[in-house]
Amino acid sequence: MSLHTLTTPAISKKSETKLFVAPLLNRIKKESKQEFVEMQQTFELMGWGELPDELKIEIYDDVRFMVQELKGYYSSCDQFVQQRRNTVHFWVSSFQDGICSLEAAIKALKVRWLA
């Protein structure tokens, strides 16, 4: 047995994976926190900060894409995108004004995926 074999610590596959995964998970955690704070600020600026979490979850993607467009990441002139935004504003306003229930707003805003 050589001296090198005795003095070099053996790194197992498990610890190699830990060394790789830990920084990745930390980065994801940090980015998630930043996105959460940014979205909360956006909801507050739009006057939607007091909405129930169930409704916020339903319109999360819509609001996120509005923010991205405002930041200049892309521009959408699509009539269906504008129609969806109008729908979101209508149902959120209707809920805030007490015109409809939370369940009705969520049901109206639920995205129906093509199958």
What can you see in these coordinates?
This protein has helices at 3-7, 13-45, 53-70, 79-96, 102-109. The chain is mostly helical. The chain has one domain (13-109). It is elongated and about 55 Å long. The termini are far apart.
Summarize the entry for a quick read.
With 115 residues, the protein is mainly alpha-helical. 71% of the residues lie in helices and 0% in strands. It has one domain.
Could you tell me how far the N terminus lies from the C terminus, measured between alpha carbons in angstroms?
A: 63 Å
Assess the beta-strand content as a share of residues. under 5%
Helix-and-strand structural type = mainly alpha
Give the assembly state of these chains. Answer: single chain
Number of helices: 5
Q: What is the residue-averaged pLDDT? A: 85
Q: Give the low-pLDDT segments.
A: none
Counting structural domains, the number is: 1
Series of H and E elements = HHHHH
What would you call the shape? elongated
Instruction: Describe the main β-sheet briefly.
Output: none
Q: Could you tell me the number of beta strands?
A: 0
Helix content: over 70%
What Rg is obtained from the alpha carbons, in whole angstroms?
A: 23 Å
